[in-house]
Amino acid sequence: MRGWRTLSLQARQLLAASLALVAFLGLTGYALDRAFVDTAQNALRERLADLANGYLSGSELDRGRAFISPETPPDIRFMIPGSGLYASVRGDGLRWESASSLGRSLPPVAFLEPGERRFEGPLRIIDARGMENSVYAYSIGVIWESAGDFRLTFSVYEDAAQIQDQVNVFRRALWGYLGLAAGLLLMVQVLVLRWSLMPLRNVERELARVRKAQSQRLSGRHPRELESITESINNLIESERSHLERSRNTLSDLAHSLKTPLAVLRSRLEADASHEELRTEVAAQVQRMNEIVSYQLSRAARSGHALFAAPIEIEARAEEIVAGLEKVYAAKGVLCEFEIDASARFYGELGDLQELLGNLLENAFKWARKRVLLVVQVEPAAPNQRPGVNFIVDDDGPGIPAEAVERLLQRGVRGDERVQGHGIGLSIVQDIVAAYRGQLRVERAPELGGARFQVRIPPAF
């Protein structure tokens, strides 16, 4: 059983096609064989009927009810002993057989009513040497008026070996040609299978090249049935590569961030600070390093995303985030409005959605005067794709000049140094958007007049 499970796709298809081909050709051969046998027997019946009619038309029955055959029978074989063609007459006290039946024991036939005709066979006969043979018989019931309405049965026999020889010749030709056709069709099937499965072998070769680091991704030259698979594999490869790259960046950032507090501690040790001053400085720098490590670990934990994650409802998560922000910025009295499509779903990790909405909304609350607007729209997708989603966050704050957008999105840059923050929120948003192959646009809000942050997460396989 295990061997069947490990058969290759080509072997499975070839085996199935071979079994179907053998069954089809076998049934076809059987049907043709039976049709030929029936046709040959019908032809024999017609031939024997013509011979019987011809023989009777030239025969006579005298008043003594003796059967007189024609001087020249319809077929010369009726006059040659053992020729394979025989004739006989059966009646009340009458029995006649053709010269060809000399040394043969013809099988008896049923006595037929006048006008009745019957084709039988094969029937067994015994020749002069005591050997068995088979014949086909065609009989006619006749009433002879000139002999006082004398009733008799006239029969014509032909050796079954002749029709059997025809059938054997036909069968040899039939099964020979069917066997040749089966061989040719199997060869064609093998070629078709190899051609059909070539895209899968190409994918296998490309995957081997990716494993050996000879290629970065699978090519896009594949049949449409494999496009979703190869695209998903490419997404997985790129996600893993991106995850590794972000992990390296996180370690680099962590090392770089820890250099400053370590340098401060070293300088305090070299300055011969007092025990109490050193204790206070160590506590402060340890606290700072703990914050740096916690931050970098959280960044590393959310550096990737689940490629086949379940859809997450957006509206409920947005309400939780806004409820918390309204408490933090209660003194400003900012009102956040929603325009969220009820069918909108985020296909990714919950942490990514919270970070994305949290940083965008917190930035809007920070700069808004009184109003923030969150719009979530569904982007339709093609068949076999997950739909995309668009996030739009508007505020009525001072806005962002177009020339300052690129600088503001850089890591560690704040829009206003007097405002509390680390300048990394929008950088985190950019990293998440990049992980989902999305787009981030910053422009002026048309209605509220402040800044508009628009994030597009495109449809994906």
Question: How would you describe this structure to a colleague?
Answer:
It is a single chain. By secondary structure, this protein is an alpha+beta fold. The protein folds into 3 domains: 1-196, no CATH class; 224-301; 311-457, Histidine kinase-like ATPase, C-terminal domain (Heat Shock Protein 90, 2-Layer Sandwich). Helices cover 49% and strands 20% of the residues. The protein has helices spanning 2-5, 9-57, 160-196, 198-211, 224-270, 275-301, 314-328, 350-367, 405-408, 425-435, and strands at residues 60-61, 67-68, 85-91, 94-97, 117-126, 132-144, 150-159, 311-313, 335-340, 345-347, 371-379, 388-395, 439-444, 451-457. The protein has a 5-stranded antiparallel β-sheet. The chain has a 5-stranded mixed β-sheet with strand order 9-11-12-14-13. Strand 11 (371-379) and strand 12 (388-395) form a beta hairpin. Helix 5 (224-270) packs antiparallel against helix 6 (275-301), helix 7 (314-328) packs parallel to helix 8 (350-367) and helix 8 runs antiparallel to helix 10 (425-435). The protein starts with a helix and ends with a strand.
